[in-house]
Amino acid sequence: MQAVAACLSRYVRQNQSLVVAYSGGLDSTVLLHVANRLADSVSCDLSALHVHHGLSANADAWAESCASFCRAQEISLTVIRVDVPRCSGEGMEAAARRVRHQAFDAHPADWILLAHHADDQAETVLHNLLRGAGVRGAAAMPEGRGRLMRPLLGLGRAALFAYAKHHQLTWIDDESNADTRYTRNFLRREILPLISSRFPRANEHLAAAAGRFGAADSLLDDLACLDLGDCPAEFPLSRKLFREMSDPRARNLLRAMLKWHHVQPPDEARLTEFVRQLLTAGSDRHPRIDLERYSLWCEAGKLHFRNLV
Fold this sequence. Notes:
The protein is α/β, with parallel strands linked by helices and 309 residues long. The protein has helices at 2-11, 26-38, 59-73, 92-106, 118-130, 135-138, 157-166, 183-198, 202-228, 239-243, 247-260, 268-280; strands at 17-21, 45-52, 76-81, 111-113, 144-145, 148-149, 237-238, 288-290, 294-299, 302-307. It has two domains: 2-205, Rossmann fold (3-Layer(aba) Sandwich), CATH 3.40.50.620; 229-307, Uridine Diphospho-n-acetylenolpyruvylglucosamine Reductase, domain 3 (2-Layer Sandwich), CATH 3.30.465. It contains twelve helices and ten strands. Strands 3-2-1-4-6-5 form a six-stranded mixed sheet, sandwiched between helices. A hairpin with a 2-residue loop joins strand 5 (144-145) and strand 6 (148-149). Helix 5 crosses helix 8 and helix 9 packs across helix 11. The relative contact order is 0.10. The mean pLDDT is 92.
């Protein structure tokens, strides 16, 4: 209660609307229950949003379970059905996350509350580092960005479980969470427990490191803004702008531009080679990157971007 109340006080103004992204699992059930108890005290309208992915045979039953809980708590619930592309090339986990966030983007609430906690943060840091992420990826999940808010980010899962037991809450267990073929499940069930057996505070330290990486990421964004000068943070950008800066600053600016356009940068090797060509190739050369979600290319002295999704 104290953690969520403190987070709401940092972001929410009186009479704004809050919606909890409610899967029906332990984490989001606890968040919804706490937010419901606090809604009147912060003078906010509270509702819940359940994204129906349709990936499990139990998906309809989960939606009904969420509806039942919300009826008992007198909380308005919206259920949105989405289609998760199975052959997008980005993987099922990433595709489901993308369409889920599209559903969040379409919701009119002032704030969307997500139930990620400190153990999720530690898992995300480790996952991103193992995939070769830099400072931005290691920063993992911020407490607040845009309309998204994560009030439980400072708490471990054990605290949520204790709260749920104390208040006799019931929740859904998604059977896919036990499938270690999914990378996050493998890290959560196999790797992090092993690490914690040697380093008992591993999750706490990984989550704290995410905060420090987040501060560094913010400074890198500030540097990118300085390097843009009077240019708006929009494509196309003059190729000359990149040629006037060092290679590390050019790569930082390009990463920031892609982040601000809500797409992931290419892997480090492709990004480095693209920036090298951007800085050194003659005007008759046209460096280009084509990815699943977007394209980057040089033409007529400018760097162009096209979102393909």
